[in-house]
Design goal:
Order of helices and strands: HEHHEEHEHHEHEHHEHHEEHEHHEHHHEE
Strand content: 5-15%
Strand order of the largest sheet: 10-11-13-12
Shape: globular
Helix content: 40-55%
Number of helices: 17
Distance between the termini: 56 Å
Oligomer: single chain
Length: 441
């Protein structure tokens, strides 16, 4: 056994749960995600620190009442936004306020009032073109309170008195006093590089070069394990040959099962880790109208691709991922201070670029927007009572959100005019879907 070697069979299930908790919640405090998690992590701290470093290249840091898993990033991702308590993804304004809150708290003492925090953030935001924080603006106050609530939910700020909602309604009539968890503040913002010294967001990605064959193989094995954990499905065509070799090997499945208690499912096109323990933040199929529509769309797409009596589905080459990656890099780098050089080429070949060179003509079935519209209309007609009036009134939004969910799970790939059906869609071929009807009384 390469991992959890010192963990007894009686404790293995608890150890695997601790691994899953850390992977889902890289920041753990005395109260986040609950009061039992931090003691569980501390119980296995030594084994966790060694195994997570060797298996994935992650670093576990424990300071005071805080545990932080510092991950190694292989690629930029947009599918894991911070969200407010109402489930609304953070926009640029909220991310900016969150960063400025952390900067202020790093200089603060052990307590701070909400109005003091807002005043300090407003001063810093006023120096940033296009940002600002106007206490008289309801939109600005709500965005600021969302950032504060995100910190409060994770135990970085602990409410000692008052209410942030009252301040959001009227800054002059409400106030809140917070205790500041200094350990959590310092652990939360730990960039791998000094930000003043980087010229592009790509500098935050791991770009260390291996100096020997053994080191290269170890790095490829870690990249393979990270890919399985970080992505709902990993296609062999999306990774380099070295990583693909490890994905196909038997050791990967045994290692991940020993660490997480989850089993690897392998198919001709790729692999996925089957979530039987509910550790993922989002699951598919899931609950809710969007998830129900998504799985029904997946069934319709699978049937369309495999229908022997229907019109043959047109196949298209997979778009060059480098174009989307460069566009995303440019959007992020646009937030750097003026005068800083943006998007400099590192001169290295990334894992994705190596995969592109090996698979220039990988073609997938095209599912047109018109088919998706018709399929969504048919879903609403057939399962009408399972979807609320708001979805019937706006089927376009239901289709967009359902396709977005399928995209996040690697089932489809958006292209102009529709989506490309990826191999995961084949799991739902000839599936008989049942939708839970809404209770009226």
């Amino acid at each position: 056994m390469r991992f959890a070697a010192e963990v007894s069979d009686l404790e293995l299930a608890d150890y695997q749960r601790a691994v899953r908790l850390l992977l889902r919640h890289p920041l753990i405090t005395a109260t986040w995600p609950d009061e039992k998690t931090l003691p569980r992590i501390r119980r296995f701290a030594a084994d966790l620190r060694g195994d997570l470093s060797e298996a994935f290249g992650y670093r576990l840091e424990l300071h005071g009442a805080t545990a932080r898993l510092v991950r190694t990033a292989d690629r930029l991702r947009t599918d894991r936004p911070a969200v407010s308590r109402t489930g609304r993804p953070f926009d640029r304004q909220r991310y900016a306020y969150l960063s400025l809150c952390l900067a202020t708290l790093g200089r603060a003492g052990i307590q701070i009032t909400l109005s003091e925090l807002a005043e300090a953030v407003a001063v810093d935001a006023g120096r940033i073109t296009g940002l600002g924080l106007d206490p008289d603006s309801g939109a600005d106050r709500r965005a600021f309170v969302d950032a504060v609530a995100w910190l409060e939910e994770r135990g970085v700020l602990r409410l000692a008195d008052g209410s942030s909602s009252a301040w959001a309604s009227d800054p002059g009539a409400g106030e809140a006093l917070y205790d500041v968890a200094r350990d959590a503040v310092l652990a939360l913002f730990r960039p791998p590089r000094v930000l003043q010294h980087i010229d592009s967001v790509t500098a935050l990605l791991d770009r260390s070069l291996s100096s020997s064959g053994n080191a290269e193989r170890r790095a490829a094995a870690q990249a393979a394990r990270r890919a399985v954990l970080e992505q709902p499905v990993v296609y062999y065509d999306d990774v380099s040959a070295e990583v693909g070799n490890h994905l196909r090997g038997q050791a990967l499945a045994a290692d991940l099962f020993r660490l997480t208690g989850l089993r690897l499912e392998r198919r001709a096109e790729g692999v996925l880790l089957v979530d039987t323990a509910g550790w993922s933040a989002e699951r598919f199929p899931g609950t809710g109208s969007v998830a129900q529509a998504a799985v029904l769309l997946a069934v319709a797409i699978a049937d369309r691709v495999s229908d022997p009596d229907g019109r043959r589905t047109r196949r298209m080459p997979v778009p060059d991922p480098a174009e989307a990656r460069e566009k995303l890099i440019g959007q992020i780098d646009a937030g750097l201070p003026a005068g800083v050089p943006l998007g400099l080429d590192s001169g290295e070949t990334t894992e994705d670029e190596a995969a592109e060179a090996e698979n220039p003509e990988w073609r997938l079935p095209l599912i047109t927007d018109s088919f998706l519209r018709e399929a969504t209309a048919e879903i609403l007609h057939r399962y009408g009572s399972a979807f609320g009036a708001a979805w019937h009134a706006d089927p376009g939004r239901l289709r967009t959100e359902a396709v977005g969910l399928l995209t996040r799970f690697g089932a489809v790939l958006p292209v102009p005019g529709g989506v490309l059906a990826r191999p995961l869609i084949g799991r739902y071929r000839s599936t008989v879907a049942q939708v839970r009807q809404r209770t009226l009384f």
